[in-house]
Amino acid sequence: MGFFENISLALASLRGNKMRSLLTMLGIIIGIAAVIAIETIGGSMTGAVTDSMSGMGVNNITVSLTQKSSDDEMGTTAMDVTLRWFMDSTPSDEDLMTDEMIEEYQAAFPDKVSAIQKTVSVGQATLQKYGDADTTITASVSGANRAVLDGIADDTPLLTGRWLNDGDGDRRICNVSSKFVEQTMGCSDAEAVGRSVTLTINGMPYTFYVAGVYEYDDSSSYMFGSIDDDSIQTTVYIPMDTARAITSSSDGYQSFTVVVADGVDMTEFVSTTGSFFASYYTRNDTWTVEATSLSSLIEEMTSILDTLSLGISAIAAISLLVGGIGVMNIMTVSVTERTREIGTRKALGAPSSAIRLQFITESMVLCLIGGIIGVSLGISLGAAMASAVGFAARPSVSAILIAVGFSMAIGLFFGYYPASKAAKMDPIEALRYE
């Protein structure tokens, strides 16, 4: 008997016992649907987290000052150990990283460093909301070099005016968002360019002129808020020298960001960067430099989410074993019901291998149909649940293929015993069966 004939017989047998076949497939359907739904939700969550964090700069390295631990110090005796409790938590001007260090770093790795992003945090500024003198708007103010603004421009276009340049020195100009213009100036973006805006920073008023307006992005990580219920996030960018003048800060940096060129091995270069800057602090008893990358954090989070999804899927897959036992049970009943048919075929010369293959094929077809239904149901459930929590549905193709293959493997494994039982029947005894 050919392959297609076995499939035809299997389908005919399933059609002849529709309700029994459906009930038998339920275990397979539920198990496969649960696995696919969980994998879909897990993939959606992983994708959402990865996309969100990727927008924060996967190819960036954060270089920052950090206090040395007691293990980093030269001495090991009680007299040599400096008590960390009494150390300054704020580095002095002599401890800060300098422009000279950064220039030497760029010269050492010209092909690996795309840009250096430097910022000076000025703090929070307050001003009145346009048309509502009783409402106070609070915005973050930050000094930024052109590399920072170029990075922002990749995702947030400039609507009108120009970005600040490194050559702006200590000019009182700024870049603001379109939402800032709407909330505080009450005019169009084009009309805002060249206008003055007075920000109160640490109790002192400072007047700036708008050089450019960038598109407001509500997913921005910069804080901007009002007493309204709707939270608003934005930053006012000013030249670096202006920020230093307002904060009376030195020319050094507690931290900055390295934009790494495409194609660079991030894991290796993070370590190299950290070692390069730490070499300047070998004689510093209190401070050293660490380099970190968001890409390693993303990989770790992705691995955790994947492991979690796999563990939950493994638990859900237990129902497949229950479904497999149900398949074996129903196939055993089917063999018993068709004893005379088996005896007739064997009496007409059908070999045991043909009988075995017929029932194994029927078992695999039963599980395959259940697997296909389960995949369809699982994708639908996964997409619905992912949508309910605000994630884009991302069904796993590999999980679908594995699930279908596993369902057929269950049919083969749990269908083999009933098929072997049918193949071993004595034709004379089978024909006598009532």
UniProtKB/TrEMBL annotation:
Main location: membrane
Membrane topology note: Multi-pass membrane protein
Taxonomic superkingdom: Bacteria
Subcellular location per the Swiss-Prot or TrEMBL entry: Cell membrane
Parts of the chain that traverse the membrane: 21-38, 308-330, 365-391, 397-417
Matching InterPro entries: ABC3_permease_C (IPR003838), MacB_PCD (IPR025857), Macrolide_Exporter_MacB (IPR050250)
All copies of domain ABC3 transporter permease C-terminal, residue ranges: 314-427
Keywords from the UniProt entry: Cell membrane, Membrane, Transmembrane, Transmembrane helix
Segments forming domain MacB-like periplasmic core: 21-269
Pfam families: FtsX (PF02687), MacB_PCD (PF12704)
Family in the record: Belongs to the ABC-4 integral membrane protein family.
Protein name per UniProt: ABC transporter permease
Species for this entry: Gemmiger gallinarum
